[in-house]
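I have been asked to look over a protein record a colleague put together. What it holds is a sequence and that sequence's fold in token form. Please read both lines and tell me whether the tokens look consistent with the sequence. I do not need a full report, just your reasoning and any doubts. This is what I was given:
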Amino acid sequence: MPRFAAFRFAAFLLAPVLCGWLNSPASAEDRTLTVFAAASMKNALDDIDAAFTAKTGVKVSASYAASSTLAKQIEQGAPADIFVSADTDWMDYAIGKKDINEATRVNLLGNSIVLIAPKDSKIDNVTIAPGFDLAKLAGDGRIATGDVKSVPVGKYAKAALEKLGAWQAAEPKFAMAESVRAALTLVARSEAALGIVYSTDAKVEPGVKIVGTFPAETHAPIIYPVAATAHAKSEAAEYLAYLRSQAAKAVFEKYGFTYLIHPTS
């Protein structure tokens, strides 16, 4: 066989192999999702993401921060597929900016806010009711929570303290953190005498103890909505379906969240 003809014949044989090599890995590599979730979700969602990947083969990259920070990042073009907010306001904000596929939104979880102190603190068993004097309780120490102007836990905390008549005196003692987990860390390190965080956060940090729970009627309901972003990958539908499963419900409840919907599978 002439050399040129032999080369053409070899190329003909190799063509399907090369096409298969070029096309097959891409679909596997593309099966990834980026989830932007409120900082308080980390422990539960890490477990759920691992289980979801084991079941579907879709890898999940999660970014945790204050809901306000995440909503602004999505607005600025961050490549998120899923957004989980710790309040409805920031989900509404993202929807208003046309960054969310509103039809996929589900109010998934509930939570509560608690007063915490370092594990070795002498403060214990505080009754939180009208007349509650948080400023006096803190003494010369600081009180940590999320930024009351933007971070959901801080907004809930301020609303509750205003309802109880305790905000004005306590405000100067507050150390505003960038997220609920940052506030939690300040208390765990005894850099703050007290803190206001979600009950779910307090339960996963051995360096703090819960000394009181804020009555639900002192603040708006704590609701975690979840939705796909406007430009989410198709795998986002699988992920949202998994969050609505009995398996996900069990994990969320294990970490202390209230599951607000009926599982679909």
Summary: The longest helix spans residues 3-29. The CA atoms of residues 89 and 152 lie 9 Å apart.
